[in-house]
Each structure stands twice: as C-alpha cells, then as structure tokens.
Amino acid sequence: MPLTDPRFGKLLPCPMCGPRLKRDVHERTFSSKRERLERYSQLRRDRTFAGFGLGGANNQIRAAYVAAKSFAAEPRGWLVLHGNCGTGKSHLANAIANALEGWLTLSMTMPNLLDMLRSGYDNGDYNELMDLAVTCDLLVLDDIGTEKQSDWTYEKVFQIIDDRYNAMRPSVFVTNLDPRDLDMRVSSRLLDRRVSQVLPMYGDDYRQKERP
C-alpha cells in the first residue's frame, strides 16, 4: 500500500482466506455438535412414516399423520402432539426427525433431557449441553409434563422452550397431557397459533391391541 493509503501498516484479513476460515470453523463446530447430539439423542431410527400403521386409525390420528409429513417436508415453527398413551405421537415425532437427514437433531424425553443438564453441573459442561438443546436445528421433546416438578425443572423447561420460541427454531413437542394443563408460561407458548400446529391424538392404545 502507498503511504497515503489509510490501510497502510494495518493488519487486514485476507479476502480469500477469511470466508474459508469461517467455513472451516463452522464445519468443525457442526461436527462437534453432531457427535454430542448422537451421543445423547434417543432418536428411534426404526420409526418412519412408512412404518406408521394407519389401519383402523381415527380422523384425529390421520390428520396428525398428514400434518407431521408436511412439517417434515417444510419444517417451520412448532408441531405439538398431545393425547393419550399409545396413539403414535412419539412414532410421528421420530419419523419427522428421521426424515430430516443432515439436520442437527436432539430427540429426548423431558425427564432425560433434565438429567442430562444436571450431569453438566458435575462434568463442567452444563452450558454446552444447554446450548445443544436451545440451538440444535430440530428439537424433539417427548413426555413433557412427566418430569419431577421443582423450581429448577420449571425454570429449565421454560428456558429451553422460551429460547426456541424467541428464535423460531423448528421443534416437535409431545405430551400425554392437555397442553393447557402444563405450566402457564410453557402452555402459552405451545398454544400460540402463530407458531404452533397443535394436534390432538386421542384413540385406542395400539399396545393394548397388540396384546393376545
């Protein structure tokens, strides 16, 4: 640079190396997160849309199946599935995650997610674990409302849901309860129709049908 150039004597990023370095950092971060997600995630790889039995399914379950396939094709906002046990809610939630290859997905039950976060206090990686839950591409959270209630659990459940709500990150939430019966702050966000598709799935328990 000539002496008169304002950039003379200054350290400047290389226009070729800068974007490449940024991409390399992103790829390393992505790889590290994927390894941790695969370690903790409870995703059932055998649960797919093709394996979801619609024979004998009622209209609610059929509607949820259609909505879940649409969500997997274009994941936006949230999908909230609620109903009694054994109607296929968890199967559809896992089928969505399995359909989104290449996504950073965390699939866990709420009690196990909270146990994972507790372990972070002892292992010194709490912030990293919370970051996985909050920033992963897709969060599939099952059995909401079955966690042992305490001030700490209330706060952590709300923190995860509120952070994903504010960032509008795609999420699938599953509960056996009516969402209106959950903590008011959580319920308010799950039932926000601007963000969520809320689908009831009530019907016969397929596990009972399969028993001799």
Structural notes for this entry:
α6 (about 150-165) links the parallel β3 (about 140) and β4 (about 170-175). Helix content is about 50%, strand content about 10%. α2 packs parallel to α3, α5 (about 125-135) packs across α6 and α6 runs parallel beside α7 (about 185-190). The chain is an alpha/beta fold. It has a domain at about 60-205: 3-Layer(aba) Sandwich (Rossmann fold). Strands 2-3-4-1-5 form a five-stranded parallel beta sheet, sandwiched between helices. The protein has eight helices and five strands.
Structural class: alpha/beta
Mean pLDDT: 89
Low-confidence stretches: none
- Report the count of strand segments: 5
Kindly estimate the percentage of residues that lie in beta strands according to DSSP: 5-15%
Helix segment tally: 8
Distance between the termini: 84 Å
Estimated helix fraction: 40-55%
Oligomer: single chain
Shape: elongated
Tell me about the largest β-sheet.
Answer: 5 strands, parallel
Strand adjacency order, main sheet: 2-3-4-1-5
For CATH, the homologous superfamily of the domain at 59-204 is named as: P-loop containing nucleotide triphosphate hydrolases
Order of helices and strands: HHEHEHHEHEHEH
If you consult CATH, what is the topology of the domain at 59-204? Answer: Rossmann fold
The CATH class designation of the domain at 59-204 is Alpha Beta
Radius of gyration from CA coordinates? 21 Å
- Provide the CATH architecture of the domain at 59-204: 3-Layer(aba) Sandwich
